Every structure is written in structure tokens, then in C-alpha cells.
Amino acid sequence: MVLLRTVCELAPPTAGWDTHPLPADTSQEADIARLRCFFNTVFRHADKSCVSDAEYIRYSENIREVLVRLGGTCYGDAMDKIMNQKMDSVTEEHYKELLKQLMKKEDSIKDKMNELESAMETSGDEGEFEL
Question: Model confidence over 20-73: pLDDT tens digits?
Fold first, then answer.
């Protein structure tokens, strides 16, 4: 998300990047922030054995709506498949570990972006890049 915000110069949604967007805000930027909020919420449950069926359905439906808006109906079909898929304990642990690795990578990217921004501010560079 940091790369999308920085490289694509996306304007923050009305509620900001770190807050769950208002339901009426279905802009691309709000949906990107929404996905991050969903990811963070789901990740908090990664160390638990499960979430309730109602929570799973609610998260899945919300994520499905956002993915369809951002990427098209093919993402809705993929989410439908995921929502109806059963998982054994070995596969569940595998996906929990993948979620943890993704969070570590996201934190690392954030740290590097912050370092880059600090270095740019210190050098007085206005962020102009040459290719």
C-alpha cells in the first residue's frame, strides 16, 4: 500500500489512509485503505484457531465487494471459490505463516520508505527521480 500511495501519488480517502473508510466512500483510494483494514483485522485473528462463521462471512463479503470494484468480476468468482473451500489444519497453518510473513514484509517496506523519505528531507531533494 505504501508503494501505491507513493508511486501512484494517490490522494488519501476522506477518512485518511489509516482509518476504515466511510461506507459511502467507494473511491479507489478508499477501497485500497479498506483492504488494508481488512487485512489488519484478519491478521489479528491469525494466531487464533478460528473466527466465528458470522465474522468469516462478513469479512469475506466485504473483501469480495472491494476486490470486484477494484479488479472486476473475476475476483468475485475467485472469492466465491475461497469462501466455499474447506481447509485442513496443515493448510491452515501454512496460510497463517504466509500472513505473518506478509506482515513482516509490509513492515520492512514501510521502514525503508520512511528511511527514504527522511533521507530526501535531509538532503533537501524534492523527490525528483531521473530514469
Answer: 898 899 999 999 999 888 877 776 665 565 677 788 788 888 889 999 999 999
The residue segments making up the domain with residue 53 are: 2-13+26-108
**What are the residue ranges of helices labelled H in the chain?**
2-7, 28-44, 53-71, 73-83, 89-123
What is the count of structural domains for the chain?
A: 1
Structural domain includes residue 71: yes
Burial of residue 11 (number of CB atoms within 10 Å: 0-12, 13-18, 19+)? exposed
Q: Helix (H, G, I), strand (E, B), or coil: what is residue 45? A: coil
pTM of the model: 0.59
Is 86 inside any structural domain? Answer: yes
Distances, alpha carbon 68 to alpha carbons 26, 64, 79, 107, in Å: 12, 6, 9, 27
| Phi-psi label, residue 124: left if phi above 0, alpha if psi -120 to 50, beta otherwise | left
